[in-house]
Every structure is written in C-alpha cells, then in structure tokens.
Write a structure and sequence with these properties.
Blueprint: E1 2-10, H1 16-21, E2 26-35, E3 38-46, H2 56-62, H3 66-72, H4 76-88, E4 92-95, H5 99-111, E5 121-123, H6 124-131, H7 145-151, H8 163-178
Parallel strand pairs: 1-4, 4-5
Antiparallel strand pairs: 1-2, 2-3
Helix pairs in contact: 6-8, 7-8
C-alpha cells in the first residue's frame, strides 16, 4: 500500500488577541511517500499566504520567513494542484493528529480549490495513543511527533515544525507503529 504522510505548517501567533483577529493559513506542506513501509520520496510545497502574514513567532517556530515564501512560495491554486499530484499516486494518507486534515479542508473553502485527499486517513497520534499509551483518546499521546518518537527511543531527525522534516519523521513513526509494535 502506498501512503502519503502529510505535515502542514501554518501562519500562527503567540498572543490571544493576534489569534483572534487572524486566521491560520497553510504556508508549507511537507510530504513523504511510503510504499509498503519503505520511504520512496519526500518533499515540500511552500504556499504564499493571501489572507494572513507570517508573524515573528511563526518565523521562530517554523523557520519560514515572508522573504522565503516570496521567493519559493506558490499561489494557493498552484500549491494545491501540486498536492493533488502527490495524492494521485497513493492509496491513503496519514498525519500526526487531525489538524492537517482540518486545515486542508479550510484551505479548500478559503482558496476555492479542491484538494483530492484519499478517503482513507490514518491519524498517527491516535495510533500511538492506542498502541503505546493503551488509550483510545488521541490526546493521551504526546502533542507532536518528536515527543512521541523520543518516548519510544526513536531519534527525531531534522527540525521540529519543518513540514518536510516532520513528514519524514512521522513516516518513520508510522512504519514503527505498523511493524515492530503490533
């Protein structure tokens, strides 16, 4: 089975008043393709925000700057067309938690685009909660893949909150949960 592991980074703010007057918008889509528990490709898609700005807090958290997005970011239409190409070659997709699924749905409405997400979605945080924490509540698992990996002795490679690095690490975690931890 071929699966796309997706991790998105979005505009964000650290102050409640900034959060209230702004809306999160995808600025990076990291992806890793897994075929029968083997990583076959990975990459990222940068998206120029059109309804929000990259805050200093977001820059520090993700390492993504407005200047970088101005240089390599795609329009929403181009970016989601590229994501549809990623999804076209897979049977299912996975993410760590439901945030990625929810915000991609919001992006469809906000940007009037269609994202062809495969019907089957694996929530890796939920898998971790069930298999490691022995709990059906996904919130029983750590809040991000780096913490989950550390909890079971895996090494996180790259930068946390980088879509491409997170997607690769989620793929490693997904593979481990599907094989050794059955």
């Amino acid at each position: 089975m071929k699966i796309a592991i997706i991790d998105v980074e979005a505009t964000c703010w650290d102050k409640p008043e900034e959060m209230a007057k702004n809306q999160n918008e995808v600025i990076e889509i990291g992806y890793t393709i897994v075929d029968n528990n083997r990583i076959v490709s990975s990459g990222d898609i940068y998206v120029k925000p059109s309804h929000s700005e990259v805050s200093p807090f977001c820059e520090k958290l993700t390492g993504i700057t407005k200047q970088h997005l101005d240089k390599v970011g795609l329009s929403a239409r181009e970016a989601y067309s590229k994501l549809n190409n990623v999804f076209s070659g897979v049977d299912a997709w996975a993410s760590y938690g439901n945030y990625d699924k929810i915000i991609l749905g919001k992006m469809e409405n906000m940007n009037q685009v269609k994202i062809n997400m495969p019907a089957t979605h694996y929530n890796v945080r939920e898998m971790f909660a069930k298999k490691i924490e022995k709990n059906n509540d996904p919130k029983a698992a750590p809040s991000n893949p780096k913490l989950s990996m550390e909890k079971i002795g895996m090494k996180f490679i790259g930068r946390n909150h980088n879509g491409a690095d997170d997607a690769k690490n989620i793929a490693l975690l997904f593979n481990k949960l599907n094989s050794e931890l059955k």
